[in-house]
Amino acid sequence: MQNIFSGFQATPTHEAVEELLRSPHVRIERIVSNGQASPEGFWYYQDESEWVAVLEGRAAIGFENGEAVELSAGDAITIPAHTRHRVLWTHSEQRTVWLAVFYQS
Amino acid sequence: MQNIFSGFQATPTHEAVEELLRSPHVRIERIVSNGQASPEGFWYYQDESEWVAVLEGRAAIGFENGEAVELSAGDAITIPAHTRHRVLWTHSEQRTVWLAVFYQS
């Protein structure tokens, strides 16, 4: 049994990324952030599509076209494959727990 | 944008099952229970594997071999394809929010 809300190794300087499931077509990750953001100029660019939810905390994801989406607890979006995106910010005073499902679309 | 923790249609007599994502290889569902359990003698039997988490509330899943797993908020298990299982109970006094990822294994 896994628990999404416990067993973190996140620190103020590092996000904790853990793989909860890996199968041929899908991968599930739990990510815990403590105020981190993507480095300036960095973009995620993935061959897989991603369904991502914020389960605790708050965060914002930015896209190459300038759009930004703010996510509070429970909010989920789908990011199509090959869509450049980055984490603009995560809550600075509480942990942000993400659940990300990467899949071949 | 979707929100996992809001917009429920669950009632004391019916579970609310909503599809959050459907793609060729993966399907994500949000299920909200209010004390429901699987009917006596009923077993889920699926061609897909399932990664399932309880995000709120509490529940128990039973398996054909007699094993039972109790899930509290954050707990997640993987149920391989073709594994008979059923919901033994869900919390009777608060909602139970499940997140289920079905995938071809």
Automatic annotation (TrEMBL), chains A, B:
InterPro entries listed in its UniProt record: Cupin_2 (IPR013096), RmlC-like_jellyroll (IPR014710), RmlC_Cupin_sf (IPR011051)
Domain Cupin type-2: 43-102
Pfam assignment, any one: Cupin_2
Superkingdom of origin organism: Bacteria
Entries under CDD domains matching the protein: cupin_reut_a1446 (cd06981)
Protein name per the record: Cupin domain-containing protein
Species whose genome carries this gene: Chlorobium phaeovibrioides
